[in-house]
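Attaching the record inline, Q. Sequence:
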Amino acid sequence: MTEHVTVTTDAGDLPAHLWLPPTGHGPGIVVLQEIFGVSDYIQRRAAQLAEIGYVVVAPEIFWRLGVTSPVEGDDALQQGMGLVQRLDWDAAVTDAAATVEWLRARDEVTAGVGAVGFCFGGGLGYAVAAHLESGESAPLDALVSYYGSALPGLHETLTVTAPSLHHFGLADSFIDTETVRRIEASVTEQPETVFETYAGADHAFDNDDMPWHDPASSTLAWATTVEFLRERLPVA
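Structure, as predicted:
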């Protein structure tokens, strides 16, 4: 069951969705959306993480643009890309970082906090991890990034030392294989980084509401994600 909550930021209350595990407590995970917002797909993934024992929150990252519901319809991709172009990236990073800190302070969170991001959220999660490591806040205990769309422009300027797992398809229509390999070489310089690639998988291969969905790659990546999280954020 989803609870609607708010996270206090410098610009007001950021709307978010909260899921509790069956026990009511556990490690925390911030789920970061695709360009389509906190869609049904993102909510399903968040609910699955809660079911296996995590306290999960998904913030509405487009809230400063007045958008707090999923982008839908035949032109959803165009709408989503338009929102990203208008978005204040630095504010999105600080909003997501504030959500991490908010979750860490919750009584239900009895261990560390990680982040799982998809597409836009995958790149945002990487930037948030770097942001937290550069400040006085506690760093992320784990990061999972699915085909982070901002990573081509981030991996050479930002360093993340937190344990991280990256998933990329090798038939990505938006990030070519040469770029994927450059990202891999860069991020795996850190010892606690795992980088997985999927032959024949396109961008957004995990999203089963999209035509790019690759069931085999999605299943394998999710199993790897769950194993990675259980190792770094054990559920009691």
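Strands lie at 2-9, 12-19, 26-32, 55-59, 109-118, 142-146, 164-169, 193-198. The CA atoms of residues 21 and 50 lie 5 Å apart.

More tomorrow.
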